[in-house]
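G., the chain you wanted modeled:
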Amino acid sequence: MIRLCLAAFAFFVGLLAQGADKPNIIVIMADDLGYGDVGCYGATAVKTPNIDRLASEGQRFTSGYCSASTCTPTRFSLLTGTYAFRHKGTGIAPPAAPAIIEPGTETIASLLKPAGYQSAVIGKWHLGLGDPAPEWNGELKPGPLEIGFDHCLLLPTTNDRVPQVYVNDHRVENLSVQDPLWVGNKIPSPDHPTGITHRSTLKMDWSHGHNDTIHNGISRIGFYTGGTSARFRDEDLADRWVKESAQWIEARKGNPFFLYFASHDIHVPRIPHERFQGSTSLGLRGDSIVQLDWCVGELMKTLDRLKLTDKTLIVFCSDNGPVLDDGYKDGAVEKLGSHQPAGPFSGGKYSVLEGGTRTPFITRWPGRIKPGVSDQVVSTIDLAASFATLAGVNLPETACLDSVNVLPALLGEAGAKGREFLVQQDNGTSGNFGLRMGDWKLVRRKQGGKTQAKVTLKQHKESKGPHGLYFLPDDPSESKDLSAANPEKLKAMIEVLDQALQAPRTRKP
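Predicted structure as tokens:
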């Protein structure tokens, strides 16, 4: 018995020693935030002092990317370090999608665990729950806790899709057994109120789709009934997640932690808390940017209060580029003015043009990262390999198939290089891809990049053939196709893209 106790004590001390010199890691992922939507990237119509402070105290990347121009595939790639096009079912997840990341898959959370980290995801999930479907009235597993996380407080899908409830670890929070939750894709009864039948009652009208079950005066995609005591108010999402994050960080301030703070701002429906409404000239979209910035500030205040600022690496990024009308009439188009959500780039959400995947990307770690601006190419898909290196964890050969260790670039080290090339995808169903390699960009179109979503675009002329070739330093809006004048460069980049798409991996073992 004494030997067992001593062994257990030694194991515990070993874990503490493992985590003693490891930095905390917080990834703040915005939703639908464009390159030009924040002050430090050129925005003037909306003020973002907290995000700007992150940039002034760390590295602001001018070639920071997500890996896809829609939410689910980017989030899959962020956590797994593998391009989403390699995995079936990584298109935009429907309301009742099963768990997309299967148990046993290495993720950032599971990779960091042997180094003594505790991990939490708080915010939007949108990667499915359960197998073969979510059991809303029972245990929602597999989910984040089966792929390495120790805690989660989730918006299970995305807020324009049902249901509007929190998932706390394995269960819907505050759900009453007397009022079970039902979620489906067909109307449950002929008299069920929808955005079509009860349009006059809506506090935010829909423009396309988004006209099924009504909650909080807003109609959504999909149908649900019951779960009345579990339903949240849209306006309170950010407050709840900030509060939960602060409490979780404080409870773990003595040991290294990884927090994935997955904001829903500025995704539709854009309903920030009342104290932010009317705070900008851009309407609810701009007001949601202000709320996002407040969230960043509150997380920074928590670190300051707990004296963890110098011990914490923060990565700020977005899951894809901007969109204006994404299904609701919220004034985003009418009140845009001269604001350019994608900055100097063409495209936005749903597009493989630069505006779809080049987003704000900032790293801050006071005392370790010197303030500056970097033009190195880095991507959210690289965080898995980079964090593993930071924590001193060996990356299994079969894991994170496309994640590149760009830690020196993330830390702003002199002479550090980013990734050699990056594949860009849209939702993964169209066959459209982009390839950023050095200063050049290849665009492959198999389907037109048309969408009902409206975003202000720079002038972009599609090439006559399936491929377009652009030199980004001179042409950030991808408006001058140089493929005819550069046949060898075109051929070389097509070969790189084909190989990346056909090979099982791009990370060298």
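Residues 1-20, 449-457 have pLDDT under 50 and may be disordered.

Shout if anything looks off.
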